[in-house]
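Field guide to reading this record: the first block holds the primary sequence, the second block holds the structure written as discrete tokens, and the final block holds curator observations. Each block starts with its own label. This record concerns Probable membrane transporter protein, catalogued under organism Streptomyces mutabilis.

BLOCK 1 — SEQUENCE
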Amino acid sequence: MDTMTLWHLTGWEFAALAFAAFLVGFSKTAVSGANTVSLAIFAAVLPARASTGILLPVLIAGDILAVLTYRRHAHWPTLWRLFPAVGAGVIVGTLFLVWADDAIVRTSIGAILLLMAGVTVWRRRQAEADGEPGADGPDGSTSRAGRVKAHSYGVLGGFTTMVANAGGPVMSMYLLSAGFRKLGFLGTSAFFFLIVNVSKLPFSAGLGLIDGRSLLIDAALLVFVVPGAFIGKWAVSRINQRLFERLVIAATVVGGLQLLVA
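BLOCK 2 — STRUCTURE
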């Protein structure tokens, strides 16, 4: 029995999942946050809870390709500040999944994403008005306020990535608000999500979201992640910093709206 028959997929549905996997590769090496479109496609084609478990290995494949591409640009002090809070968020998200239904999960995350996108745009406009577009650079989170911001975004990132694989936009907003430039943004994001997504595997398996059936369809979809990653690597060098930031924020807004209206 082939994978499509096992999941009762039509040709068009499998094509949609393949395109979503391609977008995962592209988002990991070009515009982080764009994979919220992939999240929506997976949730539309597959049962909502099952879709999160199937998407996770696809995301990890994209993370590995992103790390191989941008490993020299990661900012590890930022990562070490984030990980404890993210771990707490993952645990809270796991407990939340035990009882919350899909509607509550989607509405909550969608509202959070839109709120953070609005706050990030406001903060950056204020910084530009003050003539300090880079005032919150990667080392700026050593202050008390910076640590509070890192912990807040870390908990939210862990929570949203656990319940809906939607942590990308959350961390995109944090890294933009911290003043990361394009390559530092992508390198730090790549290592962050590889480590976080791998750590989610036992939780997802324990919830029954990953099993033999889900891994079969993952095996069929992984091949589409690779060309997406290569095209993303080609495209990112042709995107200037301002356009890059606008695309990331736009992808976050689109993802938030998709979750709210789904």
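BLOCK 3 — OBSERVATIONS
The chain has one domain: 11-261.
The radius of gyration is 17 Å.
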